[in-house]
Automatic annotation (TrEMBL):
Protein name: Leucine rich repeats-containing protein
Species the sequence originates in: Trepomonas sp. PC1
InterPro entries to which the protein is assigned, alphabetical: LRR_5, LRR_dom_sf, Surface_bspA-like
Domain of life: Eukaryota
Pfam families: LRR_5
Length: 158
């Protein structure tokens, strides 16, 4: 077993042999600024990066199909997320409290924006939704006080 100091670690490069980032794997790593996931990463579990207050950008590899509940919750400096593949699900509170998140382009394949997904993203100004979206749950954008553009497709039922 390898142990890391949650308080000091700044950069993590995930090797190819790790396919799953387990639940709460890096939760509370307060100094973590950079995480480079392998293109072989297939799954990111609940709260994997929650509370990584200095994390500022992230690329989600093409094999990952779901952003689990609370994955990036409380990543206050997170400004940018790039998706290389096709997501099918973004779970509740996935980006809650990402205060510096400025823009979100939801990839094609996601069908629902769940409750509290972007709650408290104070600087979120622009959200582009794909035609695959059919439902935006109550509270999905609560506390997004600077939201200027929410591009809602005709496919929305609720």
């Amino acid at each position: 077993m390898i142990y890391f100091s949650k308080l000091k670690l700044q950069i993590i490069v995930v090797p190819d042999w790790i396919k799953t980032i387990q639940k709460e794997a890096y939760k509370g790593f307060v100094s973590l600024e950079v995480i480079k996931l392998s293109k072989c990463t297939q799954k990111i579990e609940e709260s994997a990066f929650s509370g990584c207050g200095k994390l500022n950008e992230m690329t989600i590899p093409g094999e990952v199909s779901q952003i689990a509940k609370c994955t990036f919750k409380g990543c206050k400096r997170l400004r940018k997320i790039d998706f290389e593949g096709v997501l099918t699900s973004i779970d509740e509170s996935a980006f809650s409290g990402c205060e510096q998140l400025f823009e979100m382009i939801i990839p094609k394949g996601v069908t629902k924006i769940k409750k509290d997904t972007f709650k408290g993203c104070k600087n979120l100004r622009r959200v582009i939704l794909p035609d695959s979206i059919t439902i935006i749950e109550k509270g999905a954008f609560s506390g997004c006080e600077n939201l200027e553009i929410l591009d809602i497709p005709d496919s929305i039922d609720q």
